[in-house]
């Protein structure tokens, strides 16, 4: 794939996830979540089996949930051919969700991150299209330019309650805005503020200690704010340990869906352009 090539395809939203159609090893079309909150492509056991993707090793992954205190064993495999929107990529490493999680409201699904393939991406939530390319147009008309740090995942800095800087993962595969439990514990919050327990699950199952923290302000840049919001507080200790820094929070569809979003790897920036 040359720097000049780009691939644009339609998507639809389900549960805050950006879903596109793809194929594994030339098989039937299936839906993949475009998930910048993951550092590997992932397959369910059924899809892996039907498309002759065989595991050859095991690793410990980390995510939201209480299974293994945030850690989860997954199988390592490789897709000989991965097709998304006309783009074919050969010999793509992936993880197989084996053993699968049980007792969730919905079954686990497939996902991939263009960033892992070395591709920048632009998501137009208004017109429901996504573009992947090694080099996106510079986007000089964007309203907001945020410095991007890639540490396996796309990370930007936000300021919580005007006093606490924190690293936020840009997660196109997530629905809500959330804070990490360690970060939330460091905020100056009145003891009178009620913390409402919520039922939340992630890649490592249910997070049984999750709660809503109200009246939170987050600013990423002038004009890019999340004001007086009730945010889900999650246990992000395991993924923080895996990545080597404290994840202060996660930016999901609840925030991203208001913008045209570009994650530009060569220019090291996340661009946000407000919808009409």
Q: How do you describe this structure in short?
A:
The protein is mainly beta. The protein has helices at residues 45-50, 181-185, 237-243, 253-256, and strands spanning 6-10, 12-14, 17-24, 30-34, 41-44, 57-62, 71-84, 87-97, 110-112, 120-124, 129-133, 144-147, 149-151, 153-160, 164-170, 178-180, 196-197, 200-202, 205-207, 211-221, 224-234, 249-251, 259-264, 269-274. The strands form four sheets. Strands 2, 3, 4, 5, 6, 7, 8 and 9 form an eight-stranded mixed beta sheet that branches.
Structure characterization notes:
This protein has 276 residues and is mainly beta. The protein folds into 2 domains: 8-133, Beta Barrel (Cathepsin D, subunit A, domain 1); 144-274, Cathepsin D, subunit A, domain 1 (Beta Barrel). It is 8% helix and 50% strand. It contains 4 helices and 24 strands. It has helices spanning 45-50, 181-185, 237-243, 253-256, and strands at 6-10, 12-14, 17-24, 30-34, 41-44, 57-62, 71-84, 87-97, 110-112, 120-124, 129-133, 144-147, 149-151, 153-160, 164-170, 178-180, 196-197, 200-202, 205-207, 211-221, 224-234, 249-251, 259-264, 269-274. The strands form 4 sheets. Strands 2, 3, 4, 5, 6, 7, 8 and 9 form an 8-stranded mixed β-sheet that branches. Strands 1-11-10-23-24-12 form a 6-stranded antiparallel β-sheet, with no helix packed on it. The protein is globular. It starts with 5 loop residues before the first strand and ends with a strand. 40% of the residues are buried. The model has no long low-confidence stretch (mean pLDDT 90).
């Amino acid at each position: 794939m040359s720097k000049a090539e780009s691939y644009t395809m339609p998507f639809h939203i389900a549960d805050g996830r950006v879903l596109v159609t793809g194929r594994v090893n030339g098989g039937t079309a299936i839906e993949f979540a475009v998930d910048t909150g993951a550092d590997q492509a992932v397959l369910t056991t059924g899809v892996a089996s039907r498309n002759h993707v065989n595991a050859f090793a095991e690793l410990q992954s980390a995510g939201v949930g209480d299974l293994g205190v945030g850690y989860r064993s997954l199988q390592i495999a490789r897709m000989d051919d991965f097709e998304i929107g006309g783009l074919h990529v050969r010999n793509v490493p992936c993880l197989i969700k084996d053993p699968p999680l049980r007792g969730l409201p919905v079954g686990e699904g497939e996902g991939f991150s263009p960033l892992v393939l070395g591709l920048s991406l632009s998501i137009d939530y208004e017109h429901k299209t996504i573009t992947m390319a090694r080099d996106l147009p510079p986007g000089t008309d964007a309203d907001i330019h945020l410095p991007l740090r890639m540490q396996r995942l796309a990370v930007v800095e936000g300021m919580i309650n005007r006093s606490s800087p924190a690293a936020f993962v840009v997660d196109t595969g997530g629905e809500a805005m959330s804070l990490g439990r360690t970060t939330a514990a460091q905020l100056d919050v009145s003891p009178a503020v009620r913390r409402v327990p919520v039922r939340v699950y992630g890649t490592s199952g249910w997070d049984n200690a999750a709660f809503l923290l109200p009246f939170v302000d987050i600013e990423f840049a002038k004009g890019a704010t999340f004001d007086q919001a009730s945010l889900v507080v999650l246990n992000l200790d395991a993924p923080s340990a895996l990545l080597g820094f404290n994840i202060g929070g996660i930016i999901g569809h609840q925030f991203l869906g208001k913008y045209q979003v570009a994650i530009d790897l060569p220019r090291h920036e996340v661009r946000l352009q407000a919808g009409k």
